[in-house]
Amino acid sequence: MLTIRIFSGRDLALPPGTDLPEGIRRAHESSAPRKSSSNRESVQRRRYWWLPYVVLEFDKNEILIDAFGGDLSNPVWNYRADFDVSRLSNICVASYLRTASVQGKDDMGNDILMARVELTPILDGLYASDQWYTASAGSGSFHLKIDFKPTRKEALTIEAFDLLKVIGKGSFGKVMQVRKKDTQRVYALKTIRKAHIAQRPGEITHILAERTVLALVNNPFIVPLKFSFQTPDKLYLVMSFVNGGELFYHLQREGKFDPDRSRFYAAELLCALEHLHGFNVVYRDLKPENILLDYTGHIALCDFGLCKLNMSETEKTNTFCGTPEYIAPELLESQGYTKSVDWWTLGVLLYEMMTGLPPFYDENVNTMYQRILSDPLHFPHDIPSDARSIMTALLQRDPSRRLGANGAEEIKRHSFFAKYIDWNRLLARKIQPSFKPSVESVLDVANFDTDFTNEEAQDSVVEDSALSETMQDQFRGFTYNPANEHLSESVHYGGGM
Questions:
Q1: Could you report the per-residue pLDDT of 469-494, keeping only the tens digit for each?
Q2: Which domain of life is it from (predicted)?
Q3: May I ask the CATH class of domain 158-242+451-490?
């Protein structure tokens, strides 16, 4: 259990040359100074929308905290949050100033970063600290009290969670927004009925692969697994809840992204894929629907159901899977494929981000497959030359000649990235995203489909699905409760990058 108390900020300031937004200025002029009180009701907090709010994050669990006192330079938050600790991760505190009292769909991304600090807590035995931390980006400092207490807990059950909203559905189950009762942290809970996958051994392999990959990885651009548990009828995966919306949603809304924004997302994805490849895992399903944006605008790769494990550098596999628009030529030719299929899909994604459509798109899937195999690559006239160059190299039909065939490093060295991206700063999340989604709080589900969120969240009862002992044996390794293991040994593997 990691407890973080954020008390206040000191000497926060707008970036040089940034004017105070008109709405904020008027709100300051019309509001008499008030002393901060200990009334922490949300209604009370919302009165101070014109003061800086903070996004507090640990291991992709993000909390948006409104100020309820102080002033623009010295806001008071007085907020305590408890976090479940399942792996080594940094604490990030970022302070933003809203540009309007109510954010609409048209002004997403306008909030102004004032200060940001990232620190690594000591998660080894009892630990406590109470001090000011100077911002590493922006100006000012934050007063934080951090306490860590190791706990050993019994296996989780569904009763440990309040079920809040349905946020997604698949062929084998659904995904719900849930709140863990003891820490009050909000998570995404994926439920899968064993009976639905028991008759399809390949699906059992996919589910167990997803659980294995999620427990293994520790990367800032991948949605982490917090816990997994099971009943005789169901499997449950508990992951961080990331609610800035799918990249697909934002791409549909805006049509396409400019080169810098496209490069930024592609660079973070490149780091995520490189991390997976370091564990001999091939992702195989890169597409905008599987990429989420967090509160602050960084990407979070999710849905690892199609991952293939134990893929060494020379290993080939033959399974035909993926999304039609993103299928690599070597899959269509049934010649076996390697990790380099992920670099083809990265090229398709980059093309789609910059132009609005995948490069060989056609409404007729068979026609599209023919185009993937044989059509020349065409670019709109406004695509910069270095972008054309890297997409041409990633969309090389011969996988042995494709950029990335010799590892992610050669993609990083391409001028499209090398001239603009400091990879150490990127991996440390020190490059500020140009776009920040509009998210009101950790409970906000506005960026999810209302077809799902209007549905009642419940853990449906499974009737008459008694599985044989042999079948249940296949799920033996699914349960994951890292609280009972040494953190650094259980999930934080060195050399993965």
A1: 777 777 776 776 554 443 333 332 22
A2: Eukaryota
A3: alpha beta
